Amino acid sequence: VVALVGLLSACGAPEPTEPSSHAYLDDRAFRRRELIASLTTTDNEYAADRLTHYATGDGNDWDALPVFNPEATPLSSNDLDPTTGVTASALARAGTPFVLPDASAIDDLGLVRLGGLAFFGYPVEPLPLPATLLTPARANELGLWQSAEHGVGGLVLVRADDGSVHPFMTCATCHAAPDADGNVAPGLPNGALDVGAMLGGGASASDPAAAPFLAWGPGRVDVMTSDGSLPVRIPDLRPTRFLTHLHADATVIQRDLAALAIRIETLLVGTAADVSRPPRLVTLALASYVTSLAATLPAAPSEPAVFRDECARCHDGPGLTGAPRPLDVVGTDSAVGLSVERGTGFYRVPSLRGVSTRGPLLHDGTIATLADLFDASRLDDGYTNARHRPGPVLGHEFGLDLAASDHDALLGYLQAL
Ligand code: HEC
Ligand code: HEC
User: What is the pLDDT of residues 122-131, one digit of tens each?
Assistant: First the structure.
């Protein structure tokens, strides 16, 4: 049984307002109140960890950690050698810390622009692959895209305190991918990225420690457990501003820009194993930038009657999303929603904006395409089209018994989103 704090009180899209964004930078008491108000439940490890360490003002406060802003430089296609991986000259190149303007001199638009630079430039965590193995062919196999504008998979080369240089992922490594025209689209999930294969590092699938990571497959990452047992698909960040709750299991209430900034800030402390924290101007800028990505979504066509009848009670409003639903109502695999790490007893309702251009689908990425999701044979024992695992894909059994004309109208609509 989970204690639900404020799950039902959250309403609609966050408003990026001036006072809360700056209070986030300057006012510890504000950050503490905002953290507490943005936790869906206090009864999971995600909440407990933050309540112990975030803006506490005592000896446990993550504020005392050193700020992480190392020398970094973007990695370009020219830096990769077909046999030796990242070239010696790239590893010797001088980098610079992420440039931080004076917070009092920056307006809302400046914050979004800074966030765009951080999205592709601020180092998040080491790529779990030695630089010498990062050949163009291996990069391609692992789903690291290459682009003239944004380099290789959004990776940056980071100099450690001991002088050694290593490729780091940025937000863009997971949360940007080439669109249908081949342009790298920020926010679009990188469904080809295979972090699990990197972590499995050439071990055989029968190695019990490596097996869970090798089972992730492309487009899935476990940001919850240390043993890798609960991967979720990388979400689409373009519709973030429409969401009332963040994470597949609705762990965070997205009240406003500060709640999103705190989510990003605390995540970066976690990926740094609690030894450093990001500059708060960077996390506020990232939150502003992520919120701005909704403008890159295609306009939604008007809804067919079948959608209003069968779907709009959950997928509603300009973002085609809504309040989280209990696990038993949704019916998809409940392991993530029940987890002690992040579970709330609910799954959030994903925004359907942009759904035709992303994949895989469902929180655990078990479905490849919209046609597969609305194919009733996915409930059959003999079903073989699931991603990552054999057998049927149960749950979300809405719109599966429609007349053929309604089925076609529904799919046509979804495929235009
Ligand atoms: C290694 C891949 C990876 C990297 C790097 C990464 N993320 Fe994520 N991100 C994920 C996954 C996976 C989730 C889904 C977590 C969940 O649902 O519990 C996620 C969720 C999110 C969410 C919540 C979105 C939603 O729909 O619930 C936001 C916001 C976000 N990430 C922003 C960022 C930002 C900003 C950065 C850079 C500082 C970043 N992420 C770096 C993999 C990544
Ligand atoms: C009772 C609420 C509810 C109803 C009704 C509902 N959905 Fe959903 N929908 C959800 C939830 C919750 C999820 C996420 C499930 C998960 O991740 O396991 C979801 C996921 C989806 C997805 C996958 C999106 C993605 O990014 O992975 C699509 C597509 C979708 N719904 C379309 C529809 C359509 C079309 C209908 C009507 C035929 C419908 N839904 C009816 C709650 C609902």
Answer: 999 999 999 9
